[in-house]
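Private note to self, pasted from the team thread so I don't lose it. Backbone tokens:
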């Protein structure tokens, strides 16, 4: 009887997901958000500043599937329709302005509205980690990226030049250009550290959401990603200048230059992982103390 009941439940669930209203909703959603979805996929594939989405989006969908539907999930039709109307209006306005970020955000808002309509706001809270990962997978507008990249370029240049000077390397800093004897290092937008910062923030969010339980420890991991990324990017520029000056100018470009970036990122990930492990141990200690006090 148990097997029969389980089979009946699976059949009922399948029929629910394949019902005419669900299929019609999916088709309308597909038509409405075809442009932002396809342009987002294209950016993930060809834009180096957005390629983290190729990893984040599948992870987010997997985490949502693994988390499943909450047992206390209840549909909230009115709230879901209200959010959906807001998403459609935002999609229309962003289409008129040809603004891709807002258009893509309206797509995520529309998906959230359907979740609220079918399962309620509690289910959306249950999927907070996948939702934030999906939001991070949407590339920021170019204007915002440029406004963030240039200060990071200047900061990384200052840090790299200061470290080179501390090792008695003759250096002259002019904006984002580090002048060495017979050589000049240009700290370009690609070397600003913005990509590694975005990736580390996503990793910090993922690590905190999976391995930590307290909101404040998760916030600490997320905030720690910022100084770690900036400091290690400065170290990368220092190493590049050091090798260019003392070893070979060719080491400042090509495969060696990109290899340094990967090594630095692995080190940053290890630092973030070690910090998360320390916070997890602190959480365990606090739980044991509370259990002992309760006993």
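Design output:
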């Amino acid at each position: 009887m148990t097997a029969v009941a389980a089979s009946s439940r699976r059949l009922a669930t399948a029929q629910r997901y394949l019902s005419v209203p669900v299929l019609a909703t999916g088709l309308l959603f597909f038509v409405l958000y075809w442009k932002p979805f396809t342009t987002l996929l294209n950016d993930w594939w060809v834009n180096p500043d957005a390629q983290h989405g190729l990893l984040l989006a599948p992870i987010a969908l997997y985490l949502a599937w693994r988390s499943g539907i909450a047992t206390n999930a209840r549909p909230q039709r009115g709230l879901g329709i209200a959010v959906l109307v807001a998403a459609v209006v935002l999609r229309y306005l962003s289409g008129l302005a040809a603004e891709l970020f807002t258009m893509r955000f309206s797509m995520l808002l529309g998906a959230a509205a359907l979740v609220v309509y079918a399962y309620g706001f509690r289910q959306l809270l249950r999927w907070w980690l996948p939702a934030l990962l999906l939001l991070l997978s949407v590339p920021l507008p170019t204007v915002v990226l440029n406004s963030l990249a240039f200060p990071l370029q200047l900061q990384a240049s200052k840090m790299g030049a200061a470290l080179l000077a501390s090792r008695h390397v003759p250096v002259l800093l002019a904006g984002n250009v580090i002048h060495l004897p017979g050589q000049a290092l240009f700290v370009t937008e690609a070397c600003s550290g913005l990509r590694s910062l975005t990736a580390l923030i996503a990793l910090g969010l993922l690590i905190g959401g999976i391995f930590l339980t307290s909101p404040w420890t998760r916030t600490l991991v997320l905030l720690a990603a910022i100084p770690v990324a900036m400091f290690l990017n400065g170290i990368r520029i220092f190493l590049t200048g050091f090798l260019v000056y003392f070893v070979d100018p060719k080491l400042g470009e090509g495969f060696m230059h990109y290899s340094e970036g990967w090594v630095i990122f692995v080190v940053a990930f290890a630092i973030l992982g070690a910090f998360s492990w320390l916070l997890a141990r602190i959480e365990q200690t606090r739980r044991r103390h509370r259990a002992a006090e309760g006993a």
